[in-house]
Design goal:
The N terminus is likely disordered. The protein starts with 13 loop residues before the first helix and ends in a 28-residue tail after the last strand. The protein is globular, with a radius of gyration of 22 Å. The strands form five sheets. A five-stranded mixed beta sheet has the order 4-2-13-8-9. The chain is an alpha+beta fold. It folds into two domains: about 140 residues, no CATH class; about 200 residues, Sulfite Oxidase, Chain A, domain 2 (Alpha-Beta Complex). The structure holds ligand MTE and molybdenum atom. Ligand MTE binds next to loops.
């Protein structure tokens, strides 16, 4: 993966993690420089936008042709224009033979974009999420996503019984081999405990309509999870009594229930430094389920030729860790959030003070 270094995000979200809330947002970090001078790297850090513009995300989505390349009539045929898009909610047609009781709902639902937006007026949520792929050691970008909690969408099905999992997938060129699918448990979707986050059906990003590239007109956003749960070009939901995950990523040796991990990523560094010169090492931290308190680093003499230390090298036990400096949270969110959006409306922020 080639990544553009500057696209990631300045500013801390210590308030979110401090409140015991898994913010899942990106924070800049900086190893404290040995002498107190502004280095060129300081400038690079502050030049990072907190929100990644929709078109600057790194992209890992699949498809042949990739749905985001469709245009004109092909796009309408795929029902990926705002006018043609529909979300079809049904029960699964062919449950596995180990499923004894079939799921049932009062009525199947076919929802268009304006009906979804109408639901958004009453139930809409906004959340800053870093899109983080499980297989790439770098967030792809961070945005304010807006949509309707999946539980409020599923209410449209009326009374349901024998539903234990929610399966969902998006447009995939009508080719089963290209289908990228995911699933959530019924309880995760229908009940959001205080301080937790709802999975939601998103149609806006950074204050604008969700563009095709990012999975528009509508994609799933699962705040606590890696990107593979956030299905793009969402069109189908099947309610099922199958208790097993059906995730595409489950088949590829991943943990389909993995929460985002707290992790630190260093920016690239030049190979050589002049002796005696201060060096600033910058990077990003993503606050996962366990939150984030601090980031520490350790410097050691490199062997010649340089090599990574193996995970069980005894040297780890005598490492001397030094605390890095975390960039402070933005003082004023109004310049960071899209025009007209108050921090008070965003999940994870204090609704009274923003
Ligand atoms: N329909 C569909 N949705 C998808 C994918 C895909 O290939 N097809 N890739 C998933 C994976 S693995 C990731 S990491 C995210 C990436 O989201 P992004 O392209 O907005 O950065 O989308 C997820 N949703
Ligand atoms: Mo991914």
């Amino acid at each position: 993966m080639k990544m553009r270094r500057r696209q990631f995000i300045h500013s801390a979200v210590a308030g979110l993690t401090g409140a015991g809330f898994a913010g899942h947002s990106i924070t800049a970090l900086r190893a404290a420089p040995p002498v107190d001078t502004a280095s060129p790297a300081d400038v690079a850090i502050s030049a990072r936008p907190f929100l990644t513009s929709a078109h600057d995300f790194a992209d890992v989505s699949r498809g042949n042709p990739n749905p985001q390349t469709l245009r004109g009539e092909a796009l309408a045929q795929a029902r990926l224009t705002p006018e043609t898009w529909r979300l079809e909610i049904v029960t699964d047609e062919e449950p596995k033979d180990y499923v004894k009781e079939r799921a049932s709902i009062a009525q199947p639902v076919s929802l268009d974009l304006s009906a979804l937006q109408e639901l958004g007026k009453k139930h809409g949520v906004k959340f800053i999420k870093a899109m983080q792929c499980l297989n790439i050691p770098r967030p792809l970008g961070q945005g304010v996503w807006e949509g309707v909690p999946l539980r409020d969408v599923l209410q449209l099905c009326g009374r349901m019984s024998n539903v234990r999992r929610i399966f969902y997938w998006g447009f995939h060129n009508d080719d089963p081999a290209q289908m990228f699918r995911s699933s959530l448990s019924y309880s995760q979707v229908m009940e959001t405990p205080p301080g937790e986050l709802p999975a939601f059906v998103a149609y806006r990003l950074n204050g604008d309509a969700l563009p095709l590239e990012r999975g528009g007109p509508v994609r799933m956003i699962v705040p606590w999870a890696h990107g593979f749960k956030s299905i793009k070009w969402l069109q189908h939901i099947a309610l099922t009594n199958d208790y097993k995950a059906n995730d595409t990523y489950a088949e590829k040796n991943n943990d389909p229930e993995s929460h985002l991990k707290t992790a630190a990523y260093l920016d690239g560094l030049p190979k050589h430094f002049a002796a005696g010169e201060a060096v600033t090492v910058s990077g990003l931290v993503i606050a996962g389920w366990s939150g984030l308190k601090k980031v520490e680093y350790w410097m050691r003499p490199a062997p010649n030729p340089p090599a990574e230390l193996s995970d069980d090298d005894p040297a780890w036990r005598s490492a001397t860790w030094v605390e890095s400096e975390l960039a402070p949270p933005p003082r004023d969110w109004s310049g960071i959030l899209p025009a007209g959006m108050s921090a008070k409306e965003v999940l994870g922020f204090d609704p009274q003070t923003g």
